[in-house]
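Chapter review: from sequence to fold.
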Amino acid sequence: MEAQAQGLLETEPLQGRDEDAVASADFSTMLSEEEKEELKAELVQLEDEITTLRQVLSAKERHLVEIKQKLGMNLMNELKQNFSKSWHDMQTTPAYKKTHETLSHAGQKATAAFSNVGTAISKKFGDMRRR
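The token string follows.
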């Protein structure tokens, strides 16, 4: 008998269609008047608690802003600090270091190549003037 009862219990979470069916079901006919009153009282209590929590959160956020203002912290300073920290963190990664090294080396080679081209062009112009 226990094996049959376990087979009736689903172990999988509700799927979208299951949630829709539960949401559209009318459970109010299955509840006694006493249960309905208890649930209504619980609902009112939860709504009151949520309102209180929102008020407390709002007060704490205002207090946070006041403290930051007293410390001279503002959004722009925080953004600058976050950006600086992120930039520093990125520069210390092995990938950045390797890329920086590679690009620096490529830049040196490009500079040398441009210098050689410039020298060759100058030499050509010098040869052309002499003729």
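Two observations follow directly from the output. The chain has five helices and no strands. Residues 1-5 have pLDDT under 50 and may be disordered.
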